[in-house]
Structures are given as structure tokens and as C-alpha cells.
Amino acid sequence: MFPAFLSPARCLVLTAGLLVAVVSPAQRCVVRLSGVVTEHFTGDPLRNAVVRVLKAGNPVAEVVTRNNGRYAFELDRGWRYTVYYSRKGMVTKHVVIDTQGIPPYPDVPFYEMDVQMTLFGWIADFDLSAFDQALGEAAYAPGLRNMSWDVPYTEELRPELSRVMTEYEKTAKGYYARKRAGRRPQDLPVPGAGAPTR
Prior knowledge:
Blueprint: H1 8-22, E1 30-39, E2 50-55, E3 58-64, E4 70-76, E5 80-86, E6 93-98, E7 110-114, E8 117-119, E9 137-141, E10 146-149, H2 151-172, H3 175-180
Parallel strand pairs: 1-7, 1-8, 6-9
Antiparallel strand pairs: 1-4, 2-3, 2-5, 5-6, 9-10
């Protein structure tokens, strides 16, 4: 039997009240995203590269890099972000970072992600549509208790991107232009190089 002051109905109300009292908002957790934007062939940091963050498809932050090419953002837990890297006259690239899987009460107040991005110039009439897709996708991995890149996704892209970049480098260095001139590519000087040797 319940005491008069603790009838079943009152116990239920009291229990509910206690539950409400101990529930607190989820801990704020961020992903600290940072890195350097560099030129693909030289590795030099790029000034005036634009790094733009979209949160659920909406622009929320933007940085224009200085001489050191560095950028940094904080991404809140619980959203899907797309990060675009661009510069005038260069091919735009992007990655996807999904923070929706981070638990409400994580072990740490933030996770760090270092993303180094290289950019290279456009070539007229060259098909670079392979770079229209995200070059990487990252999400919270419960087993690792950290942010992690989707390696199978990246590996699936690798052969096509490698093929495109091989053709890009040949085109940029004048390989096909020299070939169209009717002479053997190895007999023609590479721009910036000395006279050919036989």
C-alpha cells in the first residue's frame, strides 16, 4: 500500500517531475575544420582562394585565404556541410562533412579535421566534369569515436580522377599540341626547357 501522501497517481507525477529535472540540453560539440589551399603542381600556398561552407545547402561562412593559404571554421554537430574551394581561373573542388552522427553527449567538446586542398587552372575545352562530384565524404564513426573519411567512396573515385589528371598534365605541358604538329613528342622541346637532345 502507498502512504496517503504517495498515492500511485502522485508517484507518477513525482517521477515525471524528477525526469524532467535531470534532462539537460545536449552538449555543444563542434568540428574544427582547418587546412591550407595550395597550387597543385608547385605546392605553394594560394592567396585569394575562396573557401565557402554550406550548411544543409545554405551558405553560412566564407574565408578568402591570405599568403599562407590557411583557412579555419567551426562546424556544429547535427548538420550536413559542403565545403567548396575555388579561385578565379582555377577548377573548383568540394568535400562533404556530415556531423549528424555525433552523439548528443560526446567524449570531447570538439573534433579536429585537417583538409589540405590543391587547386589547378582551367584549360579551355578540357573535360573536368569529374571534379563536379565531392572529392571526399566524412562522417562521425561510432566505432572510432571520431570523424572519419569514407575510404571506399574515395577509392572508387581515384581511378577516374587519376586518368583525368594524367590527361590534364599532358595537355598543360603541350604534349598533344606537339603531337598534332606532326613531330614525335620526344623530339620537341617542352615549354621552359632547353633544346631537345637526340
